[in-house]
Amino acid sequence: MELTKDKSRHHHGNLHAALVEAGIDILRSSGLDALSLRKCAALAGVSHAAPAHHFGNLEGLKWAIAEEAFARFSEFMRTHAAAADDTAHGRLLGICRGYLAFARAEPALYEMIFCLQRKDPESKRDASTSYSILRDTCAPFVPPGTDPVIIETQVWSLVHGFALLELHGRLGDTPPPDDAILALLRHIGQEPA
């Protein structure tokens, strides 16, 4: 990737967003290890000190990128849920399809949001927004007296595991179709036979 100054990338008054987009471009082309404040500045066409002013350090930049990634991730799930059948099961399949579509469309962002960890509750806001989509969609499938986290974890584990196996090439050249995997969701919340 050639990092040249391109003044057309910088929009006055929105340098924060321009630097985040530059960081996303670096992640997509070269991965998380290649991300640096200096490379973001060069790609955005600003001084090398500009990112430090907005983010403090590389960790701050990563979290700003993660915030944008979580927003996009949530939007994928909402969009796919809205396009699905207007039933509880249809919405569940919709968010799962959105989850998988995001992982395929944005593998670098997908892996980044699940590898970063921060302790303070404020930083978990964006992750909790995405999780609330899962929680709200799973709510109709929680049997009385069951901890909702059990059902949420079943759905999340299935779709997240499938996404990771596919992204890491563990499903071979011809992975099973989404519907074959997501068919398992019809049993969520039901008692075993």
From TrEMBL:
It comes from the Bacteria. Pfam families: TetR_C_33. Residues 13-73 form the HTH tetR-type domain. Coiled coil: none annotated. Residues 36-55 bind DNA. One of its GO terms (molecular function) is DNA-binding transcription factor activity. Keywords: DNA-binding, Transcription, Transcription regulation. Transmembrane segments: none annotated. This is DNA-binding transcriptional regulator, AcrR family. It comes from Thalassococcus halodurans.
